[in-house]
Design goal:
The chain is mostly beta strands and 270 residues long. Helix content is 0%, strand content 42%. The protein has no helices and 16 strands. The chain has a 4-stranded antiparallel β-sheet, with no helix packed on it. Strands 3-2-5-6 form a 4-stranded antiparallel β-sheet, with no helix packed on it. A 4-stranded antiparallel β-sheet has the order 12-9-16-15, with no helix packed on it. The N and C termini lie close together (9 Å). The model has no long low-confidence stretch (mean pLDDT 93). Residues 1-111, 116-247 form the C2 domain.
């Protein structure tokens, strides 16, 4: 998976890069993603000599080898001043790759918080290798939801039967977030919801930047008991459809318990 940047510039309608009173400013920009393995992925623009508001024009910079789930990663943008002995750091910004759109788009981020002058912004166009979010594709549907039959069983209360259900929750912008639940399974420590489907809608324009909590509850008369939970980074999901399997119960004297399900996004994903 890769991403390419072009039309890279310091926003000409805003401030200028810092200037050293003893030296001219020779800026360049470094892009860095901390991928798995040693060293991460990095790439740099060329150096612009004596230019406090540089524009790299037709120059392109590409980050390759971002792995199978680039939407789960962050990218650091560093602006440096090239010096003879040690390059000076002018400013930096973090970009959540989970906020990027499928195919192409634009980025504009603040890289220098000037105190006595205008803040400085770097702006650029980007093109992914096909991964990203899709406008108005704001949903995800789960089906074939079950407790993994090849692993452990849900906890059992010695005084009460276990009546499990699963709640899916995403803390979206605005009040309350998005939540949905399976039906309750009576007296079933290894439930399978079969053809039942659960859908989370209204996940916003960048669902890949969000996380989802999966909670397994035991339905009780007065207050439902929490059995176990798991967190899923939506930035790790594939375009279209895939499978999730996560641990929801860390049993001490028995096998751990896993919930598994198929999912289908609104088209967004890696």
């Amino acid at each position: 998976m890769s991403i390419t940047f072009k039309n890279i510039k310091i926003d000409p309608d805003e401030g200028q890069l810092e200037s050293d009173m003893f030296d001219k400013t020779d800026p360049y920009i470094r892009f860095y993603v901390d991928t798995e393995g040693w060293g991460g992925e990095k790439a740099c623009t060329s150096k612009k000599e004596n230019d406090r508001q540089p524009d790299w024009g037709d120059e392109e910079v590409t980050l390759d080898n971002l792995g199978d789930t680039p939407l789960s990663l962050e990218m650091k943008i560093d602006v440096y001043d090239d010096d003879l002995f040690e390059d000076d750091a002018i400013g930096s910004a973090i970009v959540d790759l989970g906020t990027l759109m499928q195919g192409s788009g634009s980025i504009r981020v603040k890289v220098d918080n000037n105190i006595f002058a205008k803040d400085v912004y770097v702006m650029m166009d980007y093109e992914t290798s096909g991964w990203g979010n899709i406008p108005d594709a704001q949903s995800i549907t789960f089906k074939n939801i079950k407790i993994d039959p090849d692993e452990g069983q849900l906890e059992s209360d010695m005084f009460d039967k276990t009546d499990p259900y699963i709640r899916f929750y995403v803390d979206t912008e605005g009040w309350g977030g998005e939540k949905a639940c399976t039906s309750k399974k009576e007296n079933d420590r290894q439930p399978d919801w079969g053809e039942e489907e659960v859908t989370l809608n209204n996940l916003g324009d960048t669902p890949a930047s969000l996380v989802m909590k999966i909670d397994v509850y035991d339905d009780d008369l007065f207050e439902d008991d929490a059995i176990g939970s798991a967190i899923v980074d939506l930035g790790t999901l594939r375009q279209g459809s895939g499978i999730i399997r996560v641990k929801v119960d860390n049993n001490i004297f028995a096998k751990d318990v896993y919930v598994m399900m198929d999912y289908e996004t609104g088209g967004w994903g890696n």
